[in-house]
Design goal:
single chain, alpha/beta, five-stranded parallel sheet, 5 helices, 5 strands, globular
Amino acid sequence: MRIRTFLSLALALASAALLATAPGAAQAQDKVVYHIDDAAHQALAALRNMRNQLDTEPGTKIVVVAHAEGVDFLLEGAKDRNGSAYAGPVSALRSRGVSFEVCELTLKSRGLKKEQFIEEADFVPSGVVRITQLQRQGYAYLKP
């Protein structure tokens, strides 16, 4: 009886593996949340990583959550350490489906206004709460 049960289980696993790799089998969409809390040290690398990720896996769903000093690269006129504006790469990524979410608690604590941010920025009540929600929804967590 044990051998029959083992063989049945082995056959079921082999069938499942074949179905999963068959052409047309449903593929799960990759979902990633990029956590940025220090724009000066993380934003440039994060933008580059997102571009590379989408070049390799165009269907990836990417959400960027910024809080604390991480929101700075989404401010109007913000530039990287090389003097290049962040707005161009952010806009290009937004056109590829990336969303950029700014923590409203950070705005309050730093005395910032929504009007100071580029148009690609969306706002969430709490950055860390949003990251937690996304992780519960199956998003992989990356912190560049």
